């Protein structure tokens, strides 16, 4: 009896197609061909089938709808005669136009680009960097971007092929939320060789870049009762936004020529601090000597926590390497690294080493955020790193970026003789400051109006200071660098 009912129920379901969610039981008796043609016309009119779309083969669609192939062929033919479709042989039937009477078939309107001045007239909103990226400019000096044209495509492809050749079926399933074991081994080896950090692969957590590190650490610290994370001032606006999103305060701590002022850090009473000690963003100063000793004493004496953003420490030109704080303060340091400045931000792969107290909580936070990074890019990166290709890429980038750094320093000397250059010995950017009776946001707005994109220094400051600009040079060829800085010089000259 039950079997009979199930059979009856199954037979009562009318055939339908995933294509346009067509349901043939809606067609009038004897009018299936015209009904199908009209459904396709409506999809052309409202944009569900834009020009260039390919329609299902007539045999396939007829089978899904449970109609004769002639019904579908005739419907297509009517739309061919109307000029909406065209047969392209083996490429099938494609959309070449929309019904002339279809007023809804206008191309989607694009949002107007933001006005240059509107980006800089108020406090930067949460989406300021998204808006900044979409703002049109022929020369882009945005900091933090490597030369993306230098991405090692051939070496990456070789690593990808090797991974796919040896990939087990089980590797395509859900993985360890901490990251692919092969990549955690490769990262442990990389930071040991290049940053002097000894770490067990089991201590490495793979994340979606330093941005996710800040979010995960911020959540865990907030849950542990920590309400503030002190920040260098000036310091990264983007990092500050991530911490604010985790409901953490960010009291500012001054940075001078020796690095962060540890006496000011103590005065804030903060239990944690976010630092960029190897190449401070955006001033470029290095934390070392007595200031490192002071910071180490603060951490050990008070149990203070340090989030060490090692964002571009490998890119150095005129100075010796600086050891990571994590190498001497493993119990107190959250160490954050990524490949965004070495390969490309689009990979969204970074790593985090946490103090033992917080490791399990961070793994839980990562698990519930996304179950772990995508496995295939991790395995490819592991192969890329272990093959020696990462070191070769770093050596190439150092030579490449040094030439662009030199071009930027030369251009500033030629076109901005009154500006002071900061942080040119390493990294992917430098900062200039200047005396002026106007805001650096006005300079940035005027420069963008002339097709040159820069960050005003004040975006990265919590307290007032001299106006300045943060200028990324890694992504621009020397000719563009000279032209862009010349434009900045002209802008400043007109505003003076």
Helix residue percentage: 40-55%
Low-confidence stretches: 1-13, 102-108
Strand order of the largest sheet: 6-13-12-11-10-7-8-9
What global shape is seen?
Answer: globular
How many beta strands in the DSSP annotation?
18
Number of helices: 16
Describe this structure as you would to a colleague.
The chain is of the alpha/beta class and 496 residues long. The chain contains 16 helices and 18 strands. An 8-stranded mixed sheet has the order 6-13-12-11-10-7-8-9, sandwiched between helices. A 4-stranded antiparallel sheet has the order 14-15-18-17. Strand 8 (252-256) and strand 9 (259-260) form a beta hairpin. The model is unreliable at 1-13 and 102-108 (pLDDT under 50).
